[in-house]
DNA sequence: TACGACTTCTTCACCACAGTAAGAT
DNA sequence: ACATCTTACTGTGGTGAAGAAGTCG
């Protein structure tokens, strides 16, 4: 990573793609991520305006600069005056948004330039994006950002979450939670059912976010900053726990284990009812995509699992590092899903409030989707894939060009 | 409870061929 | 040192076989 675009090596880099582990200028970002459906799903984040190295996760309104976690901590924890700076989370995006669409994601993108803003952001504003690039996958209709009563921007979106939620907070509220700003301005008792996954904690019942259950869930959306988690809960990472694999999920769902989404929502319900302070402390640790950006940039290969002890008195984490890449954990759905039983912060009453019919429905949908889910592998050579995609086959095997075939990918209904 | 039969699920080899790397000329 | 040619190897996706795992009587 560096200040120059990793792809063209000419333009200054503007955004960071975690899946590609690359810093890109906007033009290359467009061309690279319009290549295929997989690349369109890569989440990108603007680069830190200070170090130009790490993906930014927060924007300081006073300094008008986007900052990574480290720079934010450096800049806002050392001075008491800086501590009160109002900060906003920086949205990630996927697909191929136009400059106008980026404006809606990053509000500062449309603000007037100022001397104080970073070079990156000035260039971001000045650069134009090739509007001819196909950008079907980015659906601004499904992703609208609105302001709630508290002035906190919300992202309403349908099934595809392309934009992380945006919120504001000031460093004085709780410096310890600096890496996790979501919902800190959200009154604990408010309920906004228009919010979906990222806003799940605000929903009254877990069923509200049912449609998203298991489906679009991945580490990009479920962000867990382990270090912060340790700080928050004082747990120690255990690297030797067993991995809960996909095949085990069915039985788990049917018994004691719950999906993170479940626990997440139920925890929020509990927090609404009893302990607003608790949910404020918990939610950000799970919902801050930007902190995951920072984390994954340095711990890119970590796939995290944790299991809950049945006694609810403690839980342990598992961190497995392998040769996987960003795309692996990003896209593999359930395999990257964190599984856990009822967390220690979730009182038993929450689970009891979950309608059994909804759960069974959710499990059924999960199983169906699991069947049809394509666990995408990383395609290293797109050209080879293109050829393979059009190559005729006999019983799945490639046949010589011009030879008899029983399956033509270009015309599946026709065979000879 | 143990066992066999059956079903369901998972893993892997197979195929052709364009592209790449390494070595030879 | 450089260019050209040859050879070996790689990696794509759909299918079926084989084995593992689960279910039922």
UniProtKB/TrEMBL annotation:
The keyword Coiled coil does not apply. One of its GO terms (cellular component) is nucleus. GO terms for molecular function: zinc ion binding. GO terms for biological process: regulation of DNA-templated transcription. PROSITE patterns: CCT, ZF_BBOX. It is found in: Nucleus. InterPro entries: CCT_domain (IPR010402), CONSTANS-like_Bbox1 (IPR049808), Znf_B-box (IPR000315). It comes from the Eukaryota. Residues 359-401 form the CCT domain. Keywords: Metal-binding, Nucleus, Repeat, Zinc, Zinc-finger. Signal peptide: none annotated. Pfam families: CCT. Residues 1-47 form the B box-type domain. The keyword Metal-binding applies. PANTHER family: ZINC FINGER PROTEIN CONSTANS-LIKE 10, ZINC FINGER PROTEIN CONSTANS-LIKE 9. Belongs to the CONSTANS family. This is Zinc finger protein CONSTANS-LIKE 9. It comes from Hibiscus syriacus (Rose of Sharon). The lineage of its organism: Eukaryota, Viridiplantae, Streptophyta, Embryophyta, Tracheophyta.
């Amino acid at each position: 990573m560096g200040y120059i675009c990793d792809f063209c090596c000419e333009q200054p880099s503007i955004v960071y793609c975690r899946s590609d582990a690359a810093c890109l200028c906007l033009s290359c970002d467009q061309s690279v991520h319009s290549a295929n459906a997989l690349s369109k799903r890569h989440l990108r984040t603007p680069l830190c305006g200070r170090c130009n190295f790490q993906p930014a996760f927060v924007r300081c309104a006073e300094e008008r600069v986007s900052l990574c976690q480290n720079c934010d901590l450096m800049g806002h924890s050392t001075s008491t005056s800086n501590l009160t700076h109002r900060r906003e989370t920086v949205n990630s995006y996927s697909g191929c948004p136009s400059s106008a669409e980026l404006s809606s994601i990053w509000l500062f993108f449309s603000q007037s330039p100022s001397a104080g803003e970073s070079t990156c952001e000035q260039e971001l504003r000045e650069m134009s994006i090739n509007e001819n690039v196909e950008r079907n996958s980015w659906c601004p209709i499904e992703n609208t950002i609105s302001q709630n009563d508290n002035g906190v921007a919300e992202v309403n979106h349908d099934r595809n979450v392309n934009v992380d939620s945006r919120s504001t907070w000031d460093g004085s509220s709780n410096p310890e939670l600096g890496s996790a700003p979501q919902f800190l301005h959200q009154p604990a008792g408010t309920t906004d059912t228009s919010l979906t996954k990222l806003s799940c904690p605000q929903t009254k019942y877990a069923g509200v976010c049912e449609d998203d259950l298991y489906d679009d869930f991945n580490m990009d959306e479920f962000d867990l900053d382990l270090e912060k988690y340790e700080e928050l809960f004082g747990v120690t990472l255990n690297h030797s726990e067993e991995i809960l694999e996909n095949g085990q999920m069915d039985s788990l769902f049917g018994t004691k284990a719950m999906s993170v989404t479940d626990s997440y929502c139920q925890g929020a319900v509990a927090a609404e009812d009893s302990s607003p302070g608790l949910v404020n402390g918990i939610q950000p640790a799970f919902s801050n995509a930007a902190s995951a950006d920072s984390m994954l940039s340095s711990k890119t290969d970590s796939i995290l699992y944790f299991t809950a002890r049945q006694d609810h008195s403690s839980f342990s984490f598992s961190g497995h590092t392998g040769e996987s890449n960003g795309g692996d954990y990003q896209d593999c759905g359930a395999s990257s899903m964190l599984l856990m039983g009822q967390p220690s912060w979730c009182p038993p009453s929450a689970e009891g409030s979950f309608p059994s019919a909804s759960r069974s429905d959710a499990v059924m949908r999960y199983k169906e989707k699991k069947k049809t889910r394509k666990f995408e592998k990383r395609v290293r050579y797109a050209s080879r894939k293109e050829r393979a995609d059009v190559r005729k086959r006999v019983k799945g095997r490639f046949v010589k060009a011009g030879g008899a075939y029983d399956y033509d990918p270009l015309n599946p209904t026709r065979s000879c």
